[in-house]
Amino acid sequence: MKYPTIDQSLFILNRKKFTNNLKNNSLAIFNSSDEFPRSGDQNFIFKQNPDLFYLSGIDQEQTILLLFPDCPNPLYREVLFLRQTNDYIKVWEGYKYTKEQAKAASGIQEVYWLEDFDNILHSIVNYAEHIYLNTNENDRYAHEVPYRDIRFIEKMRAKYPLHHYERSAPIMRNLRAVKSDVEVELTKKASAITRDAFIRVLKFTKPGVKEYEIEAEIIHEFIRQGGTGHAYSPIIASGHNANILHYNDNNQECKDGDVILFDFGAEYANYNADMSRSIPVNGRFTERQKQVYNSVLHVMKESIKLIGEGTIWNTYHEQVGEIMTEQLVNLGLISATDVKNQTTAWPAYKKYFMHGNSHHLGIDVHDFAGRYTPFAAGNILTVEPGIYIPEEGLGIRLENNILITASGNVDLMADIPLEAEEIEDIMNS
């Protein structure tokens, strides 16, 4: 790994919180992510199952975690199974965890090779009444491919059909939404790397550069500082491209007079930053560009004030919609008549601001959390209003990451340039 070892106390605590939510006499199993083929003889870069990482800190393929707090054999109450290395793997793939390294990383004392899993499971599974299995229940995702968790569920149900099967995901959804101090610090590190990449880009950008050249500057800074890479496919959208919400071709020339919409963030130790900024290619906003920019900035600042303990997701977004509506009227993009004739299903502001204003952030960029659960201390949320005007070839989005605490909000990106004048000053320094 490129990042320093994370203190095992985080994962020990996470396992304790998880097992405290299990029914009596329950066994839980978590699998690592699949390895996906990229071409005839290559896989895509491995990305660990976030739930397995959250509970173990193990960042390696072909890993299984077994938790059985009421197991009559104390040796098997917490067990980690790893892919065993050999001389061939050492030569061709390099580093893999030893048993001792896995113990040090996870705090789990019983570590076995993967080939022992079936025998150990079979020796204890019939003493459990409930079996908790995991799937991806993130409501932003719908799977088409039967990934490892799905295949494992089918195997378990065929082999042990009379057990009571339970879902781990509802427990994980509640736990992962509330970040510990260690998780907050890892997110801050990802944000700091993202800040430095953005400042690098401000000093690099000028008319005539290609979007992909800017992308290269970003990844240079991410990797230079020990980040894993991009938290998600970066958006470097100049001019009209900014009106494509998930634009990531990043292959156009940045032209004098245009604005570039950035949406990128660093991944560090599996935790993510998620930042959006909009900058003038030539270093100076036009009067209209700055007018739209400041309207988005106003919505952003007011939105941050609305987030706190007990905030309800739908109510919050309705309030943000009202703030945005006022700004769009002031900009002459919608009229009072448009507002009067709007429907609940499609408010007038949606013509120019069509996406949500916030999502949870953590090990997943769109982190696993309850859509209908009130916000709580320890949540990290994005705030990302935008105004997109295709007829003007202009799109502005601004996004920071906000930590909710019992005493108020903390902007984890407060040190990243945001005001239009500050961005202009850095670009022209």
UniProtKB/TrEMBL annotation:
InterPro entries, alphabetized: Aminopep_P_N, Creatin/AminoP/Spt16_N, Creatinase/aminopeptidase-like, Pept_M24, X-Pro_dipept-like
Single GO BP term: proteolysis
The keyword Cell membrane belongs to this UniProt entry's keyword annotation: no
Enzyme Commission no: 3.4.11.9
Domain Aminopeptidase P N-terminal: 6-142
SUPFAM superfamilies xref list: Creatinase/aminopeptidase, Creatinase/prolidase N-terminal domain
Cofactor names: Mn(2+)
Catalytic activity: Release of any N-terminal amino acid, including proline, that is linked to proline, even from a dipeptide or tripeptide
GO MF entry, a single one: metalloaminopeptidase activity
The keyword Manganese is annotated on this UniProt entry: yes
Record Pfam families: AMP_N, Peptidase_M24
Enzyme class: hydrolase
Keywords attached to this entry: Aminopeptidase, Hydrolase, Manganese, Metal-binding, Protease
Gene3D superfamilies cross-referenced by the UniProt entry: Creatinase/methionine aminopeptidase superfamily, Creatinase/prolidase N-terminal domain
Family: Belongs to the peptidase M24B family.
Protein name: Xaa-Pro aminopeptidase
Lineage of source species: Bacteria, Pseudomonadati, Bacteroidota, Sphingobacteriia, Sphingobacteriales
